[in-house]
Amino acid sequence: MKQYRFPEGFLWGGATAANQIEGGFYEGNKGLNIADVLPGGKERLSILQSPGFNFEIDREKYSYPNHEAIDFYHRFKEDIALFAEMGFKVFRMSIAWTRIFPNGNELEANEEGLVFYDRVFDELHKYGIEPVVTISHYEMPLNLVKQYGGWRNREVVTFFERYVNALFNRYKNKVKYWMTFNEINSGLIMPIMGLGFAIQKEEDKYQPTYQAFHHQFVASSIAVKACHDIIPDAKIGCMILYAPVYSYDSNPKNVMYALQEERFFNYFCADVQVRGEYPAFIKRFFKEHNIEIQMQDGDLDLIKEGTVDYIGFSYYMSRTEKKDKSDLENSQGNLIGGVKNPFLKASDWGWEIDPEGLRISLNQLYDRYQVPLFVVENGLGAYDKVEEDGSIADDYRINYLREHIKAMSESIEDGVDLMGYTSWGCIDLVSASSGEFSKRYGFIYVDKQDDGSGTLERKKKMSFFWYKDVIASNGEKL
């Protein structure tokens, strides 16, 4: 049998986001963020995209599972002990911006929030686990959305600079791995989550979106430079949502359409953050859509100087495209879709399962950028059943992860420089896309149900013990 190998020091672990696990809704002087006003349920994203969504909490109409989530805010010691039992080398997490600056525009950081993350980092280090910290993960301060219009407003760059400097100075001895914006390119599909505003009916969708991206690129470069200055031995990366785009067939028109979709979605943001300049292909698009990016003197120089050290990315699925989709059934996915691929099966939520696509993705990214890569999200959202004896036999999750880990090993043999792997939702959490608890990813089951019931008790699934063996053997025991 083929032996799958990973380099010494490979960073095995798991991944989460503050707004999906922490809870502690109003505790520690935390302010409101975008995630706090997102209703739970399968209609979450359609509600967000509906005209008139006012970013207010309406408890008579909606539930808000993120407010308690899985209560990591109070139970982090218990959870980190379980991560340590699995042998995690790293734990990817995010910092809630509004725990540090409750309104986003304060002059001084909130000490209670800083202390909370001190405690989390100290607990991780107690077990030899390195934190991998996403600075902004779909939780922009609500005040910056309402008062400033999100990232379309240049002033937000100043607020973000203040935020990152507070983090780097406070945690310079505790965090070696950072990422700026989670799935930054998702703003092309769902600007409210990453860019902090909704496109209004009367406005062109392109101008504000690309202007907001420019502000994030400037902010990202400021963060990179500050990180390198304050924590010289740290590494700071970008983070993108990646899904390779296949043409439905060999019709050149469909091949070209797939190529265009791939370049704009997969590569635009990464090109700017890794190469330090706007890609050539975007210039034609700007011209044809009358997009004029307002820049300040020195912006392009700053972007060139503040390129990232590595690329973190999420991989859940590939995407198949056809220019005329009218005769085909659509597929679902992580904010993006396409047409159904007849060669692939799908998850309980309709996301197509394509382990070979991860190998393709790793090769494509490394061929293009030649910088270290880090798979920081990958996993299977599925319904889990607790048996009468309390066991949870999630062999379907093990099979999914096993095949994706094999694909990573193959890519390493292909010559890809791969830093590590953090499986998404290593402990059950609130789904970002649907606000459900029933869409479970974790190695650890959390007794919390979609109707709000549950004890929050943690249980080890079958995959917990499997992943423990994977890490202990450095990927050889799959």
TrEMBL record:
Top-rank lineage group of the source organism: Bacteria
Active site: E377 (nucleophile)
Keyword flag Hydrolase: yes
Recorded GO MF terms: beta-glucosidase activity
Entry keywords, A to Z: Glycosidase, Hydrolase
GO biological process: carbohydrate catabolic process
SUPFAM superfamilies, alphabetized: (Trans)glycosidases
Keyword flag Hydrolase: yes
One GO cellular component term noted in the UniProt record for this chain: cytosol
UniProt cross-references to Gene3D superfamilies, sorted A to Z: Glycosidases
Pfam families: Glyco_hydro_1
Family to which the UniProt record says this protein belongs: Belongs to the glycosyl hydrolase 1 family.
NCBIfam families on file: PRK09593.1, PRK09852.1
Protein's UniProt name: Glycoside hydrolase family 1 protein
Species, as recorded: Gottfriedia endophytica
